[in-house]
Design a protein that fits this description.
single chain; mainly alpha; Helix Hairpins
Length: 213
Amino acid sequence: MEMNTKFNYYDILEVNPQSSQNEVTEAYSRARITYSGGNPALYTIFTQKEAREYLRLVEEAYSVLGNKSLRALYDQKLGRGVTGVDQVTYEQLLQESKITRPLDLPKLGRLKPEYEIDESFETRIRAETQFSGEFLRRVREYKHVTLEQLSAITKVSSFYIHAIEHMEAQNLPAPVFVRGYVIQICRVLGLDEKKGPDSYMKLFRETLAAASG
């Protein structure tokens, strides 16, 4: 099934321009569950590649419609007859709006799970300079945080968190989205919110370069 790029972001989330922000968020949550691979009927309709592409469009749609400033700018373009994700993109809207971060990040509290303190690992966390996906996974597991818990708090799909932890660049959206996800993951896990994303994105781009080379 070929993705229809004539759809606009409202079509992708199956809401309308009059929908409230809460309705947009609820629609995004439903769509993310549908296309993230947990639905057993998914692959009777889409191939795995098509499902990943549609999930990317769902994430892109919410990055715009879930941000009040970007949504207002997008609505202006719709009013001028601009339709379809092939005519206006998240990156274009981001540049026009002068917003410098991927999303209005939610005010996330740091997790306070019960876990046994390992002083040697705590020392390593403080000294770490290479925030690889493997390192993020080890910190998450050390703090007894499941993929599902992290996904529920950050609103990043467990499919994407798994891909981030395993450096599966082919299963992740554009770098601007990935950086936003890593910021949220670091925030929840109590990691440095600048050093962590900076280091991860350096490794991520190296992975992309190696794959394309």
